[in-house]
Design brief:
This protein is 49% helix and 8% strand. It has helices spanning 6-11, 21-25, 38-46, 69-73, 80-95, 99-104, 107-116, 118-125, 128-137, 155-161, 178-183, 186-198, 213-217, 221-240, 250-263, 269-277, 281-290, 311-314, 321-326, 355-371, 384-394, 401-408, and strands spanning 172-176, 202-204, 245-247, 278-280, 303-308, 332-336, 379-381, 398-399, 412-413, 418-419. The two termini are 41 Å apart.
């Protein structure tokens, strides 16, 4: 991949041939009139936003979920999602940002604060009164699938507690865990570490912070730039040494590889090194497959597993390596949803005015899961917010594919979500 500056992203709007393919595929435009479609709100409206012309009064661009389906289907390569993200950032610069959006953009801060008293934080955030209050006062939808803080400590706590058990090896990998794994889902990180070590890799977990995607999605580009600069400082040297930076949150890895460098015009050797040295975990594992180094000492898992590849995963443009690897597990019947989007789109579906839109968009995926039969016990998805949305829309537990893989190696309890040696 190469860096695409705003100049070239802006120029791409002139490649729009007004064919409306993007609008016909857009999952948001299909369920609401609030969003006028990728073509209108993207390249068409952009011509009124630049070259000193009065800014377009159309704010429907705020209803773009950033799912990137338009980018996937555009026959001429117009960077519609990036154009919309820039337009949203310009609106924030001119008009400010609501408190609700500012809070949703700071999930690392919220995760850290809640982790000090997780049981109390869960009680405070997950009762009908507080959810109603949050909806009326701040605008966070009462039905939105907010996560639960881990009551068994953070992922960092587990790393410290098990430091003496960790593998030391000449082969090394840097793990980018992301905010969700650190504070809400430490079991994802545990499963990833087990799989890394099963392949003989020592896992390095250096200091790191939020990738900045929630801020980018809410138009806070300046704040997001600070987060990305810190991560470049923490991680670029490892990438320069040839040590891969591998993450389990596909939205985080896409942000490090593409969204932050491109949207924020982050130039420089260190930023480029991190971009080129970052991998999504199944993208990295597929390289082991290609090199003949991937372990296939699997146990049978007799189960039907509906799988959804999130929008951010497809935006990596590496195919569906998680699906391909899961299909190697004997007994596992993996079924690809082919759904366009789950609807949640990071923080999009948490907003009261967008909650029902998110649920309507997600119905394509929810109905697919229901169609697989009542015997389906769990689903699988690579993105944390998409898993939470899947659980919300189907009332079935959802797992990260790395958990399924760790279980297939006989290292992890898929139901209890913990290593078997704990």
């Amino acid at each position: 991949m190469h860096t695409i500056s705003w100049h070239s992203v802006g120029e791409s709007l002139d490649e729009c041939i007004k064919c409306n393919i993007c609008t016909s595929y857009c999952p948001v435009a299909a369920v609401t009139d609030q969003f006028h479609g990728p073509k209108y709100s993207g390249p068409q409206a952009q011509r009124f936003r630049e070259n000193g012309q009065p800014h377009s009064p159309d704010h429907s661009v705020d209803y773009c979920s950033g799912c990137r389906v338009c980018n996937e289907v555009c026959p001429t390569g117009v960077r519609i999602a990036e154009i919309n993200a820039r337009a949203r950032a310009q609106m924030v610069a001119e008009h400010g940002i609501p408190l609700r959006n500012r809070l949703l953009g700071r999930n690392e801060m919220l995760g850290k604060v809640g982790s000090y008293v997780p049981a109390l934080a869960n009680l405070a955030m997950h009762n009908s009164f507080s959810r109603l209050l949050a909806e009326k006062v701040v605008g966070i939808a009462r039905g939105a699938p907010l996560p639960y803080w881990s009551t068994e400590g953070t992922f960092g706590d587990w790393l410290k507690r098990t430091a003496g058990q960790r593998l030391h090896s000449d082969k090394k990998v840097v793990y980018f865990h992301g905010c969700a794994t650190m504070y809400y889902e430490p079991f994802i990180g545990k499963a990833a570490v087990l799989v890394f070590e099963h392949h003989g890799y020592e896992v390095i977990v250096p200091p790191q912070n939020c990738c900045g995607l929630p801020m980018l999605s809410n138009g806070e580009f300046k704040a997001a730039a600070s987060y990305h600069e810190h991560n470049v400082g923490y991680l670029a040297d490892y990438a320069a040494q040839g040590i891969p930076v591998v993450g389990t949150s596909t939205s985080c890895t896409l942000t490090l590889k593409e969204e932050a460098p491109e949207l924020l015009d982050m130039q420089g050797e260190a930023s480029e090194q991190l971009k080129m040295g970052t991998w999504d975990i199944f993208e990295w594992l597929s390289e082991l497959v290609a090199q003949g180094q991937f372990r296939t000492d699997f146990k049978n898992i007799e189960m039907v597993l509906p799988y959804h590849a999130p929008c951010q995963y497809r935006a990596h443009r590496v195919g569906k390596p998680a699906l391909e690897i899961l299909e190697m597990i004997p007994g596992l019947d993996v079924r690809d949803s082919h759904a366009r989007c789950c609807g949640i789109a990071g923080t999009y579906g948490y907003k009261v005015e967008k909650y029902q839109i998110a649920m309507d968009v997600g119905e394509e995926l929810f109905s697919f899961v229901r169609a697989q039969g009542d015997d389906v016990a769990i689903t699988a998805c690579d993105s944390e917010t998409c898993r939470w949305q899947l659980e919300h829309g189907t009332h079935k537990p959802s797992r990260h594919p790395i958990e399924v893989l760790a279980a297939a190696y006989g290292l992890y309890d898929l139901e209890k979500r913990r290593p078997l040696n704990e």
